[in-house]
Amino acid sequence: MDEQFLQKLDDIRKQFAEANYSSAENQLQDLLKEFTEESNFPCWSILRWHEAELMIHLCQFAYSDELLSYKLPTEISGIPSQFQGYYYFVFALNLYHTATLKEAENYVQRSISLLEPYSKLLIEASCLLGIIQYSSNKLEDAEDTLTNASVDAISEDFPYHTALTMEAMSNFYSYKRDSANAFKLLIQALQFEKDITNTMLFSKLHYKLASIYLRNKEFAKAIEHLKISNKFINPQDIRSALEIRYILAKVYFETRNYDKIPTIIEFMRLQLQSYPSVEMTVNLLMIEAQTFMVLEDFPNALKKTQEALVFAESLRFSDHKLAMCLMILSVYTNVNDQKQSLQYYQQIQELLVEKPMEKTPYYYYVLFEYSQKFASEEVQFKAYKDYCTAWLEMHNNHSIEHTNFLEAQSKITQQYASDPLLMIQETIEHSNSLQELMDSDQSFQPKKSALIQDIIVMVEEPLLHLHHLLYSSYVTSDHQHIYISEESHSLVSSIQKYLSKFL
Q1: 3-class secondary structure for 112-133?
Q2: Which of 289, 342, 420, 475 is most buried (most C-beta within 10 Å)?
Q3: Computed over its alpha carbons, how large is the radius of gyration of the chain?
C-alpha cells in the first residue's frame, strides 16, 4: 500500500508541475476520502501537507502564517523511512513558503537523509535545500548542494529533473548577480524541451531568459521569449502570467512606451484579485510608482512606493526593500525634503550591511541626486564617478553578446590633461549631437535608441553639474581641493569613446 500511495502522490506532484491544479485538487480530495485521519493518520498527514502546498500554488496561503494552521505533527514514527522522508520534504517546502528558513533547512536535511538515494524526490529535496541555503546567504553550501543534485539527475537520466536543477542553479547565479552563468544554465535547461514543454518549468525558463535579456537591453529577444512563455503557460498558472506581464511592463518602461503600461497594470490588478500574491502586488505597485516618477508626479510615486514597502515587510528577501527605499529617497530628494531623504539614505546603508547587493547604476544615480542637493562637493564628485563607472561596468560585464555598442575602458586621454573642463564640455556636446541625430533619423533600431537614451541620461545632467563644480574649483580659492584625477580622466574618456560608437 505504501508504494501505491507514493505513486499516487507522484502523480499529484506531476499535476503541480504542469499547473493542472484542478486535477491535482480532485485527486487529493479522492485520496483524503480513502485515507482519513482515523483510518490512516500518516497518509492523511502527508495529504494535508500536499493540500497546503496546493494552496500555495493557488496563492491562498502565500507568505502567510495561515499555512501553519495545518497543525500536523513534526514526527511520525513507525512508518517506512522513504514514507517519512516524503513527509518531511513537503513539510519543509511549506515552511520555506512561510519564510521560516532555519526550520525549513532542518526538515529538508532530515528528508534527504531518509529518501531513497538517486530518486527524483531526493533531487527535488536537494534543489529545495540549495534554494534555502542561498536564501540564507550560505553560498558555498548552496553551490555544492545544487551541483550534486544536478550530477545525480544527469547520471540517472532524469530529463525533467536535470532541467529543474539547472533552473535552480541559474537562480543561485542570479542571486550572486552573475548573469552570464545564469543565462548559460537556462539555455542548457531548454535543451530538454521535449521533456518539459507542458510544464511550468518550460514557461519559467523562457520568462527568466527574457528578464536577463531585458537587463542587457536586448529588448527584441526579451519579447521573443515572453511570447514563447505566454504561448505555453497553463491557464491555471496565474503566477507565470503575472511574471510575463511584469517583465513586459519593464520592457515598455525601458523603451519608453509608457502608453502601453496602463493595460498591463489593469491586467495584473485583475489577476491579483484571484491570485493574491504579495510579491506580485509589490511588483505592480513599483511599476505604477516608476511611471509616476517619469511623469514627475512625486506625491503619487511616493504613495505607491510606500504602499509597496508595507507589503514588502512580509517578503523573504531585502532586494525589494532596497529598490523601494531608493525610489523613496529619489522622491524626497526631488521635493527637497532633506530630513526624510537622510532617513532613507541611512536605511539603504543598513540594508546593504544586512546583505550586500548589486549596486546598479540606478542606485548610484539616486545617491548622486541626493549628494547634489544635500552633500559636500567631495561627496558629489565621488557619487558622480561611482555612477558613471557602474553604468559602464554594467554594459561591459553583463552583456550576453559582444556588440559594436560596447567599448572597453580606454587609456587616459593625455591631450585633455591640462584642461579637464574642455574634455567635459566636448563630452556634453557629443551627447547633444547624439540627441539631435536621434530626433532627425527614424532608422535607429529600438535597442540602439534605448542605449543612446540611457547614455544621454547618464551624461547630460551629471556632467553639467560636474562642469559647474569643477569650474568653481578653478575660480574660487575655497575649492582648490577639487581636482580631476587620472582615474576621472580615464572615466570621461571612456564615456566619450562609448558615445563615438553611435556617430
Answers
A1: HHHCCCCCHHHHHHHHHHHHHH
A2: 289
A3: 26
C-alpha to C-alpha distance for 473 and 479, rounded to whole angstroms:
5
Residue 111 phi, psi dihedral angles, 5° rounding: -60, -45
Contact 54, 9 (CB under 8 A): no
Consecutive 10-residue runs of the chain (503 residues): their mean pLDDT?
Answer: 82 92 94 91 86 83 59 70 85 81 92 92 96 88 96 95 96 82 93 92 95 85 95 92 94 87 93 85 88 86 86 64 82 88 88 68 81 78 71 51 29 36 56 61 55 55 54 46 52 59 51
Residue type, 407: E
> Residue 157 is which amino acid?
D
Q: How many residues does the chain have?
A: 503
- Residues whose CB is less than 8 angstroms from the CB of residue 419 and which lie 6 or more positions away in sequence, other chains included: none
401 CB-side CA count, 13 A: 7
Q: Are 281 and 296 in contact (CB under 8 A)?
A: no
Distance, CA of 325 to CA of 306 (rounded, Å): 9
pLDDT at 148: 95
In eight-state DSSP terms, residue 481 is T
415 grid coordinates: 591631450
How crowded is residue 294: how many other Cβ atoms within 10 Å of its Cβ? 12
The conformation of residue 412, written as its DSSP 8-state character, comes to: P
Could you give the CA distance from residue 167 to residue 163 in angstroms, rounded to a whole number? 6
Q: Give the three cell numbers for residue 146.
A: 545544487
- Which of these, 322, 290, 296, 298, lies nearest to 309 by C-alpha position? 322
In this structure, are residues 430 and 452 in contact, taking their beta carbons and an 8 Å threshold? no
Cβ–Cβ under 8 Å, residues 58 and 91:
no
Query: How far apart (Å, rounded) are the C-alpha atoms in residues 108 and 342?
Result: 42
H-assigned helices in 313-360: 319-334, 338-354
pLDDT for the residue 334: 84
Cell numbers linked to 147: 551541483
- 338: amino acid identity, one letter: Q
DSSP alpha helix (H) spans, 58-158: 81-97, 101-114, 120-135, 139-155
User: Hey, what's the torsion of the CAs at 6, 12, 16, 20, to 10 degrees?
Assistant: 170
d(CA 92, CA 102): 10
Q: Provide DSSP, 449-468.
A: HHHHHHHHHHHHHHHHHHHH
